[in-house]
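Backbone-to-sequence.
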């Protein structure tokens, strides 16, 4: 069974940095994509960054140039390096995964989720 465990969240001042980590295990197949999805209070879930099985990445426009998604060589840990943080980045951040080469088109299509880690950015 797939298990995802996030860590690294916290409180930081505007323009600060954080690195989120997601320990991933239990995959039954070798091809899977991984992603970071966030949800701010009172808002819907937003796909922040994706890492397809072929190594390609995507980012939501609001974080381009500030966030970087990556994975260790063993594919055991997913990272999200966040720099130049802004108050609007405040949200619960979830690590997600789905089998297949490419990440799903819609957030609701992800079958596996971590418990989330809170990121709070103060101005």
């Amino acid at each position: 069974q797939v298990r995802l465990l996030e860590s690294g969240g916290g409180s930081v001042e505007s323009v600060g940095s954080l690195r989120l980590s997601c320990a991933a295990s239990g995959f039954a197949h070798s091809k899977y994509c991984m992603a970071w999805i966030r949800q701010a209070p009172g808002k819907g879930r937003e796909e922040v960054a994706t890492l397809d099985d072929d190594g390609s990445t995507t980012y939501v426009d609001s974080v381009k140039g500030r966030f970087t998604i990556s994975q260790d060589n063993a594919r055991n840990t997913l990272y999200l390096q966040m720099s130049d943080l802004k108050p609007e980045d405040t949200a619960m951040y979830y690590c997600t995964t789905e089998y297949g080469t490419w990440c799903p088109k819609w957030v609701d299509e992800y079958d596996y989720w971590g418990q989330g880690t809170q990121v709070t950015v103060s101005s």
